[in-house]
Amino acid sequence: MLAKTIVEEIAHQLNEAEKRGTEIPHISQRYPDMTIEDSYAIQSAWMELKYAEGRTIIGRKIGFTSKAMQRAFNISEPDYGVLLDNMLFEESAVIPTDRFNQPRIELELAFILAKPLTGPCTIFDVLNATDFITPAMELLDARICRVDPVNKKTRTVLDTIADNAGNGGVILGGRPIRPMEVDLRRVGAVCYRNGEVEESGLAAAVLNHPARGVAWLAGKLAPFGVSLDAGLIILSGSFITPVSVKKGDTLHADYGELGSFAVHFG
User: Across-strand partners of 105?
Assistant: First the structure.
């Protein structure tokens, strides 16, 4: 385990990197014996700095929910991060591209909780605790360089978790639905960039059912005495490969009967 002083120092480095629009070197290379527990400790310490600066939590995100992504990173379970109040954008928003280092977009379903949810729990507990489910885009970003400029190594899941699971923002749009209104497994979406199809997928790719990711998260947080509170936004996990964006791009998400929405990167 990393010493508390190291954890806090890395958290400060991440906080400053985000403010300055820069990236720090791979933590996993600097501390090759670090564990996933160390990564979450760094993430937690960084979020504490955010709270001290006046930021508030509005939700949680779940990542690496598809088998393809887990195989790519040699892991066997998802990861999670925190959504803060300054990460929420409205549909049709003009997103300031310069605020982010390497913005990418994923499509997923967001669960808006009506009741607190404490793990361990089932998908039925999740559905009973959910008020609305709505289409969402997750905006990914990186405060730790994805590829080392010297040895060309790609960052590991340890780096991604410490980097708040790569989270940068969330955009909610389309048509909110009640949990039992549709078969959530069969919700599909197409992601367009500047009018061209980039990616598409079905929500069943998220652990076979998107509510299963929320149940998994509740179970992971329970040992720390943390529950998912009413009103939180829970991003259940992407069912497409991330789409890179740059200044001037317009990203459009078509969720079929659940509607469509777009954002522009200005």
Answer: 139, 243
